[in-house]
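User: I'm new to structure prediction. If I give you an amino acid sequence, what do you actually give back? Let's try with this one:
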Amino acid sequence: MTLHAVPTPINPAPRSGAAGERTDPLPDPTPLLRNLTQGVLEVIAGMRPIEHLARWVSEEAFRTLVIRSNLAARARSARGVRATTSPLVVTTVRCTWPADNAVEATVIVAGRARTRAVAIRLDEFRGRWRASSIALL
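Assistant: Good question. You get back a string of structure tokens that encode the predicted 3D arrangement of the chain. For your 137 residues, that looks like this:
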């Protein structure tokens, strides 16, 4: 008899609901991390309104992004540079699971001019993922 290793899903354990009932596991966070990273970089570059990300980030993370995008807009204005962005390619997404309902990830993004890293923490919020912290490195 031969035993084969079966790959385990990213988040296999079902979560407990408020009254102890079982709920479905949270979805794979990788697509959200890729899209959220691209959205954050587009907001900082002035190519996307910050409101597009409001559903996917906590209030604190939203405020941080507003400050960062305002500073970037002032810097572009002072230099006389228009808001543009180069094509972005997400090259790497690395996730760690400090808890069943939390993901900490580093996303590497390559652009025409430079490569950037974005650190994101996702927490469960009403049965879905929501970013509680975003740091553009």
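You can read the tokens as a compact description of the fold. Here is one thing that stands out. Residues 1-9, 11-17 have pLDDT under 50 and may be disordered.
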